[in-house]
Fold:
Amino acid sequence: MLKIAVLVSGGGTNLQAIIDGIEAGTITNAKIDVVISNNEGVYSLERAAKAGIEAKVISPKYFETRAAFNEALYEELVSRNVDLIVLAGCLVVIPEKIINHFENKIINIHPSLIPSFCGTGYYGLKVHEKALERGVKVSGATVHFVDAGTDTGPIIDQKAVYIEEGDTPKVLQQRIMEQAEWVIMPKAIDDIANGRITVVDHKVVRKG
Structure:
């Protein structure tokens, strides 16, 4: 059974997609052990509580230094012996110590087709604003392993979503969540939980 920690910062729509996937049986051989938020009072915590999942707030505000926060987050994850860390709308920069300890055991969902509109400064609505400014015809989402770079880890899966006339950043964001993010993130977790993918030479290799 794959033991998952989900890291969140806000409303938790991707967290809900994972919870729903486990309940529906589209994600198998996996359970969420804990939800950790870096912010108090966010709806992600309510989603976890409603699903009977332990939820904790570990915020940089609680600590005198960023290094102390990083160490607390590291100790929490290591002490739980989790198999997979899922960044589901988590806006905290993951410390290198955690990335090294959980090599190829951290995944993230990014709301574009990497390598387009990704990297430092590209998060949330900013991704969709830039896509619309550029006039691209297709966007989408990418689920990938996390490495020391920003959106540079091995790509697990991608799904394209067409941009429509009159799209606003918020409308595009919602369509990409519904048509791509909430589809490929649960699928990636199920594939990992059932041993269908490995990482070879910084690329994901799918079995079967």
Q: What stands out?
A: The helical segments are 13-24, 43-50, 66-80, 96-101, 125-134, 169-193.
